[in-house]
Amino acid sequence: MKLILNQDVHNLGEEGDVVVVRRGYGRNYLLPQGLAVPFNKQNQAYFASRAEIIEKRKEEKRKAASSLKERIDEMSITILVSAGDSGRLFGSVTNSMVQEALAKEGIEVERKRIEVPSHAIKMIGEYKINVRLYEGESAVLTLDVTSEALLKKREADAAAEAEKAAKAEEVVAEEAPVEVEEVVAEEAPVVEVEEVVAEEAPVVEAEEVVEEKVEVEEAVAEEVVEEKAEVEEAVAEEEAVAEEEEATEEAPAEAVESEE
């Protein structure tokens, strides 16, 4: 029976693919579920008109598969099983168990796409399995198969390490103030030197003021001496002029007396 898939069908094809299936499978499952339509000219033309849209959806699927592959490749999930003291498993790891573990991480994958080799995982340990994605793309998932006893031991060891780290941090926190005090003590002399410099600064300023005052007093004294000398010279000149005038007046009197 020839049909055209109306949507993606696992292990059969994608939307728009032409497939040939058994008549019972087509009539009893694919057609009633709306997963396919009869192959005829009308349906061919319809899907031909939707070719661009279908191809765009395929490209989106490719990008999503590539992103999912990167995430799964970097992921490691823990599968908890029952095991003996030797590490041998009492049960087996199935793809349903892996599917549930992936779902807890927010990854939805069909169970049939998870390839867990039959009877390959018999002991506790780390294993690699394939997860088939879109168009032949596949990712490699890391499985950490462990038992409850081993898991509890790991958790106890992790708690002990965390407690040890916390104590180490407390010791560092207690020692930190001592180091701060030592640094302050070492810096103290620098503060004292700065204070001494601050105290000496006014003395320097005072000395400069005294020097300026002395210079002013000396200049004033020199001006006073010069003015005094000028005054004395003026007085001496006046006295000389007076003496000359007296001598001039006496000379005519003596001449008159001689004539008589």
Protein model, in words:
This protein has helices spanning 23-30, 41-49, 51-73, 95-104, 148-259; strands at 2-5, 18-20, 36-38, 76-81, 114-115, 125-132, 138-147. It has 260 residues and is an alpha+beta fold. Among the domains are: 2-49, 3-Layer(aba) Sandwich (Ribosomal Protein L9, domain 1); 68-156, Ribosomal protein L9, C-terminal domain (Ribosomal Protein L9, domain 2), CATH 3.10.430.100. The strands form two sheets. A four-stranded mixed sheet has the order 4-7-6-5. It has a three-stranded antiparallel sheet with strand order 2-1-3, with no helix packed on it. A hairpin with a 5-residue loop joins β6 and β7 (138-147). The longest helix has 112 residues, at 148-259. It is elongated and about 175 Å long. Residues 190-198, 200-204 and 255-260 have low confidence and may be disordered.
Low-confidence runs (pLDDT<50, min 5 residues)? 190-198, 200-204, 255-260
Determine the number of helices (DSSP H or I, runs of at least 4 residues): 5
Q: Quick check: average pLDDT?
A: 79
Q: Helical percent range?
A: 55-70%
**Estimated share of beta-strand residues:** 5-15%
The count of DSSP E runs of length 2 or more, i.e. the number of strands, is: 7
Overall form: elongated
Name the CATH superfamily classification of the domain at 68-156.
Ribosomal protein L9, C-terminal domain
CA-based gyration radius: 58 Å
Largest sheet: 4 strands, mixed
* Name of the level-1 CATH class of the domain at 68-156: Alpha Beta
